[in-house]
## 1
Amino acid sequence: MRTSVPEKIIKIIDEIDAKGNANLTRLTVLKKWFEHPGRLPAFGLWVAARAASRKGKTAGAAGELFDEARALLVGRKIGASGLDRTAAEDLHRRLRDFQNEHRNQNWGPVRIIHHWNLLLVEEGLDVYLCRHDSPSHGYKLATDYCQHYDPRYGNGLNGPSRTKLEEIVRFMFNLEALEDDVA
């Protein structure tokens, strides 16, 4: 079912082009899109696969987790089912355990993240496995996926966020087209 949400994301891209940045809260338009059945788990799986496919050299236990995530997730068609749920749950548990270091700060404990893309794989699998299945969790996953720190603007949508937003728009168009084919 075709919606207007991808066009709203394109307007965010236009704002980045014009002003250099956009606020992360502009992505709240995704919450409405995620209300449609099946979109949220498909998005979680898609983000996990995108994060697992990022290039870069990582050794040791992190490298092994990346290799396993790539083998499980990368190359899947959008909206495709048939993912080994037991393997996904096992990988999710090991990703969570791998980056389970916390430090106490004045305001409370803070989780220390050494590998952002591994965190995105973990969060994507979390959404896919329906542990967090509200549109708000999809929004948070999208902001985590797209945000970028720039000293001129802080943490928000800028520079490299533009490409990630374009990827999300393509994902949305593809998933909506698949939904139309099924209907």
## 2
Amino acid sequence: MSPYDFTMTAIDGSERSLKDYAGKVLLIVNTASACGMTPQYEGLEALYKAHPDLVVLGFPCNQFGAQQPGTEKEIALFCETQFAVTFPLFAKIEVNGDGAQPLYAWLKSETPGTEQGAEIRWNFTKFLVGRDGQPVARYSPRTAPADIEADIIAALAR
């Protein structure tokens, strides 16, 4: 299994197969627009622009402190106007519990490291996925996007 086995709803309501990103390195992030970590959008966009074979995929989530209010249209407008986000954004999802989006259930179970299988603790948890579609690492919400650039470069080199 890999992310390429999933079809997700894009922020504009269209269905998007993650197969569209096969062969790229992915940085998959649950996002929120009213969180103290929301400025990470800027760092995520910088990584996306700096590395042509990296695709950042943003998944708005309202499970943590209700910090992602609004409709998909409102979220898209906020990301575009406040942070000039151009990386792909998707419809709001849940990342924990019985309603967890299957992509996130898979990522949590397959990411190596001490948090393997653990519930996501907050907005802006990041998953790095290699070109082969396999998870490489999971990063804390407090980890700034710039702090994982070396890992991204290593994944891009594989």
